[in-house]
Amino acid sequence: MSEAADHEDRTEQPSEKRLREARERGDVPRSRELGNVAVLGCAVLALKATAGGMGSASRDWMRDALTVDPALIDAPDRLLPHAASLLGGLVVPMLPLFAAALIACLVAPAVMGNLRFASAALQPDFNRLNPLNGLKRMYGRDSLVEIIRSVLRVLLIGGIGGWMVYRAFDTLIGLPQASLEVAVSEGIGLASSALLAMVGALGVLAALDVPWQHFRHRSRLKMTRQELRDELKESEGNPEVKARVRQVAREMSRRRMMEAVPTADVVITNPTHYAVALKYSAGAMRAPKVVAKGVDEMALAIRELAGKHRIAIVEAPPLARALYRLAKVDQEIPVKLYAAVAQVLSYVYQLKAWVPGRGPMPTLNAVDVGADGAPDSDVKDSTP
């Protein structure tokens, strides 16, 4: 009951991964009828193509085999080599048939689209020794199909054979009165015609069996919806695991940024929504580098940490938004923001060098970033 329910649940077509795994373990569609047609058809074609040469070679071999060499009577030790020589002479004319049969063994799998070697198919499968599995094969759907196929095979071959006999009935009756050469020639012609007709009949059966085997193979490999979801998770990664990995990566990135904030020269703010920490070492860097950036809670943490380490905090909303949108952590700022950042750094350096009571306190004029600034609503959190 559970197996029937499980079969009903398998409503999805097999995925490419499942088909590939099946091929790797040798589970591919096979058609016995196509194999029979290929072997018999190639053998018949080879026989018709080489009939003259094989007949001549067989006649010569028969003459040599029936000719007794008197020297062999007094040399028993030469009997075995002589027999081996006769056997070799018999095999040589049959080589075209053997070659045709060997080629046919490759033709059938190639037509089915599964010409490949699978070492897993050579491993023993002890489930085949299970009597219950044997009973299922005997009384299941496959056994019914096999019975229908066997009946069709008998009807087709029997019908072709009866038709050939009926058609050649007059010729067969006249063979005993014909000469040996004529009788042999007529007999070979009738046999080859019968074989070709038999190949045609089996070809009809193979044409029905090949699509059935493909359908049966894919039906056996069908999957349930849960199996498809599990395979998708396995191939693309579990969404929960991937989300956790991204979360851990963000936490590690934020931790590294927070560790780098004390080394910054200035923190440019929005003043509350954005914070970007910059560091510049003259001679060691071509341009200022972003060591940390954040929005909302992250921005607040950067400002608090900068305040603890007495890092200059400068309010420049357009520049803060532009840096957050265009610059990346651990990379130099974009060239288009050089002038604006240089204006801020110049102000910070002047502020550090200023001594109260010795001249007016430095002031920062409005920082112009041109079209590079963006409204708060246009900037999304791009913190790594």
From TrEMBL:
Instruction: State a single Pfam family of this protein.
Output: Bac_export_2
InterPro entries (alphabetical): FlhB, T3SS_substrate_exporter, T3SS_substrate_exporter_C
Q: Which residues cross the membrane?
A: 34-54, 86-108, 151-169, 189-212
Q: How does the protein's chain sit in the membrane according to the entry?
A: Multi-pass membrane protein
Location of region: Disordered: 1-28
* Cellular compartment(s): Cell membrane
Q: Which UniProt keywords apply?
A: Bacterial flagellum biogenesis, Bacterial flagellum protein export, Cell membrane, Cell projection, Cilium, Flagellum, Membrane, Protein transport, Transmembrane, Transmembrane helix, Transport
Summarizing the function annotation, the protein's role is: Required for formation of the rod structure in the basal body of the flagellar apparatus. Together with FliI and FliH, may constitute the export apparatus of flagellin.
Q: Which family does it belong to?
A: Belongs to the type III secretion exporter family.
For this entry, the protein name equals Flagellar biosynthetic protein FlhB
Name its species.
Lysobacter yangpyeongensis
- In the UniProt record, the gene name given for this protein reads flhB
